[in-house]
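Fold this sequence, please.
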Amino acid sequence: MNYKKIISRLALAGNSNFGLVATSCAFAFSILLACGFFLFKKTAYFDDSFIYLHMAANIVEMGTARYFPSAESGMLLSSSPLRLLTLVPAFFILEIFNIPLRTIEAARFAFLSSGFVSFLVFLPFWTNSLKKYLLLGVAFFLLSTSLDTIFLMEGGVLFLSLFTLAKLLNERTENYFAIGIAVLLVGLSRPEIGAVATVSTALFYLSQPKVLAKIMIWLFVGLLAYSVLMLALGVYPIPSTIWSKQITGKLKLFTDKNLIEILPANIAQIMGISWSWVGWALIIIPAALS
């Protein structure tokens, strides 16, 4: 028997198990920290966060994702459909136990639960790299205690979806269904980022047209399923916020000048100075440092 090989394999197995245990402990600690923060410490929320909560509660209570269920408008007032959907399971649980959905306690539970839902949504993509996904989860839950966007807005689902797509592209996996769905999930996290992800994926597989076609087919199938769900919830699939921002961004309601043309001079005037270069300096220097 080759004892050196046996000892070497045991050592590798021991190191691997130690790494998994250490990662699992860090993951558990990050979860406990996030739970304590959101259940007992966090007291301030974005106004947009309550818009998400209101629509998620409407889905559970009335089966519609409309902000005003009685209105005829089918606009989807959610910049991130995936963020909205991750809030729904928590409200379903509260509804089962007859717990009021529109309280600060329910909001805390929903925000915290949405983090776990988001993490579980992307878990199937990482079954071959579980330790790496646990490490990603450590960063995810720790960031949730310092960056409001992670659980209160769409930052969390965008964080996980982008890492997931990057992983799949880096692996050059032949699971084209997974790549297509991952691109879709990026788009459902933020439509404009999803457009970039779609173009990037297309460029990545440009030299393999058959593979690209398979990915796009699964992307279309996933998009069709999502569209059916949104129509069943009484709203259009494309978030109306994307349309409205495109329109209002082109409007000139008060002046024909762009912001960058007048901002430096206005900054200088606020300081009591007539030189616009001072305003430019106060814009450029912080930008350069950051």
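The two ends are 60 Å apart (CA to CA). Residues 10-14 have pLDDT under 50 and may be disordered.
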